[in-house]
Specification:
This protein is an alpha/beta fold. 38% of the residues lie in helices and 18% in strands. Helix 2 packs parallel to helix 3 (72-79).
C-alpha cells in the first residue's frame, strides 16, 4: 500500500479523490486542494472512482451525489467496503433533509451543499484527515 509522497515539510501528503461529473467543479476542487498540498486524483464517474481508490487509497473522497452510471450512493457504499475505508464527503445541489439524512445513513461522513464554500470544505477535509493520520 503506498504511503504517499513526502511534502516539503517532510510530512506525508494527505490523499484526496475528487469525484464529480461536472468538469469545472472537479477541476476547481482538484486544483484548490493540490495547491493546498494534497496529493489529488480526480474522476468523473463512480466506476472510475472505485478503480482509482483501490490503487490510490485516498484518505478523503469528495463525492458528488448525482453521477452518471454508478450513482453517488452506490459509489459511497462500495468505498465504505474498502479496507481501510476513506472518509467520504458527499457533495450535491440537493439540500432536502431526506436526501442529506439518506446519504449520512449510507455512510457519508459529511454532506456539503453546492455552491461550495472552499474554505469551509477545506476545514472539513482537514478534520477528516489530520496530518498524523495521513499515510495510514
Amino acid at each position: 500500500m503506498p504511503s504517499g509522497k513526502p511534502s516539503v515539510q517532510g510530512e506525508v501528503q494527505r490523499r484526496l479523490l475528487v469525484v464529480d461529473d461536472e468538469d469545472k467543479i472537479r477541476d476547481v476542487l482538484a486544483e484548490y486542494f493540490s495547491l493546498k498540498g494534497y496529493d489529488v486524483r480526480a474522476a468523473s464517474r463512480g466506476q472510475e472512482a472505485l478503480a482509482l481508490s483501490t490503487a490510490f487509497h485516498p484518505d478523503v473522497v469528495l463525492l458528488d451525489l448525482l453521477l452518471p452510471g454508478l450513482s453517488g450512493v452506490d459509489t459511497l457504499r462500495a468505498l465504505k467496503q474498502l479496507n481501510p475505508p476513506p472518509k467520504v464527503l458527499m457533495i450535491s445541489v440537493a439540500d432536502h433533509d431526506e436526501v442529506v439524512q439518506g446519504a449520512l445513513d449510507f455512510g457519508a461522513d459529511f454532506y456539503v451543499c453546492k455552491p461550495i464554500n472552499l474554505v469551509q470544505l477545506e476545514y472539513l477535509v482537514k478534520g477528516c484527515c489530520p496530518p498524523a493520520a495521513a499515510g495510514r
